Fold each of these.
Amino acid sequence: MPSTSSTGSAQFDSLGLKRVINGRSWVTILGGSRMPEEVQNAMVEAASTFIDFHELNRRAGERIAQYTGAEAGLVVAGASTGLLVQAAACMAGSNPDRILQLPDTTGMKDEILIYEKHRFGFEICYRTAGAKLKEWGLGEGSLAEQLAGSIDENTAAVAYVFSPWMSCDLSLREVVSIAHERDVPVIVDGAAMLPPADNLKRYIADGADLVTFSGGKGVRGPQSTGILAGRKDLVEAARLNMSPHASVGRACKVAKEEIAGLLAALDRFVSLDHEEMWATWRNWSETITAAGSGITGLRPVIEDGDPNRQGPTAVFYFEPDWDGPSSKDIQEKLASGDPSIHVGVGSYGDELYVSPVALEQGEAEIVAQALRSEFR
Ligand SMILES: *Cc1c(COP(=O)(O)O)cnc(C)c1O
């Protein structure tokens, strides 16, 4: 059936795509985030320029260094590329022969230690560079002893992942101290940890040698961008292991427009009134939870400050006396509508949730109305 709502893009409309209302937060499969006007303008302006690309990369890196408190920075093609070049930098460094040799790691330290509860889908990015993953954390003794005992002459780096639903009883600081005593760098994935803006500096301050963030999630830069920051020698090695250099990261190109867009997004992000933004999100979540109030078997709440949730999230728990459709059925029904409304289900139990962070003015009301008619 042809769509009756406009996506807002003439190109996407001409492809017959449906408008999506995104209650799932900044996820790649729905388009990441919406770029604010100043980000779009920065990209349009950059699109009709020529510049010295190496110079652009260096200068943009200096801006990232300022915002992160790191020695150096680099714009990368998404946090995924951040992970890839972290691994490449820790194995090949800036050695030209080694850079050309990857992903063949013969003669290099090539193991990345990863905590058992940090295993995740994105670890394929380390392997793309040629690294091998070595899990730690399920052996004998304290975690500190296990980590120390896992480091050997093949260890290129220790990975540390910050993400909802993941945790480690050893803090980043503790891991850094154990790794650094043995001259091994610690590489951090903080892809989805912005906001809060404090995290831009936090992991570097805790001693991370390299940290990566997505540029196209909460920062609202171009979806294909990411941030890398850290030690000067390692950032330089990462730069040499990435496009435009012939290297394992040559396929991960960042265009000049994207660099301009990411910098504009970062400039905006660090000067945002995050409290005001949070209050707006909370308001939208109140509008949404109201759709479930007074309905038998439903317990609507706002979960604010939960580290596993993105923003003050509207959550509906389905209690034993609920006799309507399942959370999954409602989720599917809303997604098949027009506009197509995407909500989450089943993080903590039998529940349906809506993250407000990727909504725009007016959309909370549409979500609330759609939910109300499903709940009845
Ligand atoms: C999103 C995400 C990534 C990938 O980031 P991109 O910017 O989409 O490449 C990596 N790690 C974690 C934990 C993520 O949430």
Amino acid sequence: MSKNITEELREQLEEQKKDGLYKSERVIVSPQESEIKISSGEKVLNFCANNYLGLSNHPAIIEAAQETMNRWGYGLSSVRFICGTLEIHKELEQKVSEFLRVDDTLLYAACFDANSGVFEPLFGEESAIISDQLNHASVIDGVRLCKAKRYRYRHSEMDELEECLKQSQSEKHRIIATDGVFSMDGDLAKLPEICDLAEKYDALVLVDDSHATGYIGKTGRGTFEHFGLEGKIDLITTTFGKSLGGAMGGCTAGRKEIIEMLRQKSRPYLFSNSLAPAIVGGTLKALELLLQSTELQEKVMDNAKYFRKKMIEAGFTIVPGETAIVPVMLYDEPRAMEMADLMLREGIYVIGFVYPVVPRGKARIRVQLSAAHDKEQLDQAISAFIKVGKKLAVI
Ligand SMILES: *Cc1c(COP(=O)(O)O)cnc(C)c1O
């Protein structure tokens, strides 16, 4: 039996390699920054981290994490409800609630866990979940783990969403679940329309703001701030593993009663370890920095605008948008992988995204800008794209 499966897997892996769908991991031998060192010893410019604000290796955050670890120890060896709740967990929950302007917040080891555990306790067989087709894998998995009826609308198609709402009108509760910023296209959810429809048809709204929290909106609070929808979003899930220092951890934030029930019933919260003190301390510091100044939020947005403009001028096909995710479309899978390899030789670290992460025939290089990039680094990346783009006849 075991021989059969290893043989079968070997064939499948070969197939993946042949189709340009095999993901290999490049090893980095320095901390996460705008310039990183890779295992060959070369220094390259990094354009594929979710390090939007450049906080992943920020001295103040490292120091806060170290101090918190010295004061509170390395780990908790417990889940929250047994003996894993420290004062600082409550403090972080309160700070996140203030930042996201909600009643209460529940911490998880990751946003993947937050999404896995948000639906099942709240929505039973007599409820419906209506989900954007391009939602993050963890939202999809969360929906799979719950007994509610499932509806799916094509990406950002509001007519289809309305149709789903009409069809599910007899259900006891309905919730519309959407990413705030879609990670592969970098586009924003149509939240004003979604909230209007939710109001019209009496549905709840959940936004996974992982790619938005920290830098979207004037003070970086996320898509609700960008669209002026404070109080209209019932549930926000998000990560501390992107803008907010980039270590790990996530949360679900929202109305008091919902969070209270999740604390009782959400399985990844009940049955998984408490967030490590160092991460709690680092995330608290990241939030503090964001509240002090909007300099980093402005810088990453300026960088993204500049990069978009220059790449469009150079003739590349860029998915339109207004976030720091700038997808350079190649369509063809092997070509996207080849382009990423050639870019690395030019000293620019970017990754080709291919099926199943994006649909077949929609391969791309997803460029992510950071407040840590300076103008010179942006220009270096743009020149390299032009050189390699010409070589591969992309432009
Ligand atoms: C990154 C991401 C997640 C996962 O966050 P982790 O904290 O790394 O588990 C969930 N949802 C979305 C939309 C994301 O982009």
